[in-house]
Amino acid sequence: MKKKVMSALLATTLVAGLTACGGAKSTDTAASQPEAVDTPVAAETTDAESTEAAPSGETAGTITLGVIGPMTGSLAVYGTHIENGVELAVEQINAAGGVNVGGQMYEIALNSKDDQGDSTECLNAMNALISDGVSLVVGSATSGCTSAITSVANSEGVVLITPSGTSDSLTTQMDYVFRTCFKDSFQGELAAKYAADNGYTKVGIVYCSADTYSAGLRDAFTASCGELGVEIVAEESVATMTEVDYTNQFNKMASAGAQLVFTPFYYDVMGPYLVPQARQAGFDGILLGCDGVDNTETTIPDGADLTVYNDFMFVNHYATELATSEVSSYFVETYTEKYGEAPNNFDALGYDSVLVYKAAIEKCGSFEAADVQAALADTSVVYEVASGTFSFDETGTPIKSGVLMGYSYDEASNSVVKTAVQTLAVE
User: Fold this and answer.
1) DSSP 8-state class, residue 247
2) What is the pTM of this model?
3) Is the pLDDT reported for residue 19 higher than 50?
4) CA–CA separation, 290 vs 217, rounded Å?
5) What is the pLDDT of residue 342?
6) CA torsion, points 164, 166, 172, 173, in degrees to nearest 10?
7) Contact between 14 and 89 (Cβ < 8 Å)
8) Which of 65, 184, 214, 353 has its CA 20 to 30 A from that of 208?
């Protein structure tokens, strides 16, 4: 089973090398940068058949994308931001004429389902979309929820692109499952490399042993620390991702002399519980999380001591300060204009998922799931999207760099601010 994809996609111009797929004939071309980024997302190809677009203002029909994510509940920040990115991409594509399918233009419609961050609800949402006839889906947000629907996607022939499901196993055995984020083993490797590169030789780990995301990151971080010569001096676990008391765990981190503690949790426990309790327990070193930590600033309690959030960092997929391509700049500009705030990584990865679908559909000249899957499994081109440039590996996971971000107390504004620190890569 191979799903390696390399395709080229730009925010305003798509010029991709096309191969025979879904009845479309083509010749290879090279990708090129757009000359301007002040227009909505559009697409162009050099394919002789597919460039015969429908008359201006007319569309041949509608392509429906399903969206599954936690729109409500404790993880709603993830789902609503993914949905924001998806909606922006769809709005821009439709405003530019739609998706070119074998010379006819189709608009994109959305069918969104709320999984509430619950695996059973996620499966119900997937089954509802299938009943509605939807065969191209963006979702879900978390590894636990996404893992509940991957086998259904594969058995039912529904293409699934998860924006932020990072567990390694999500794509390894599933031809129809792809993602626009990197995987946990890569995050763990980046985190361990950051520790080694910055001279932290004694580290600790506090994680949830019962959670796919947290335990997977712990395993990857541990393995990479062993390879890099970083000593793990203490390790403690909790039973749920909603634990509210981390005092004992961090008493042990402080007693063991850990300079850095790896904390693969979600934002909803980091802000109100884990960070302040770690400091109260006497741990004053680096707290290092991963992508689930993003949005911690939204969960800091009123009246909290904001200085405790200094030296709190996390590995992430995307940062507006480090996203400098024309595609990325256009995304940031238009997102900020539409929503009144800067985008985060979930916005970008949701946006990217739609662009990837658009590229695959135009590549093969079809929106049938089997044809789209085959287009995504092609290795001939490279994606350039809001979160950067990447190619898929043989499992459908992007090969890309990451970023290190950090939280700190800003005295001037009396607030906790989030900033990009550096790009992270593994040689």
Assistant:
1) H
2) 0.82
3) no
4) 8
5) 93
6) -60
7) no
8) 353
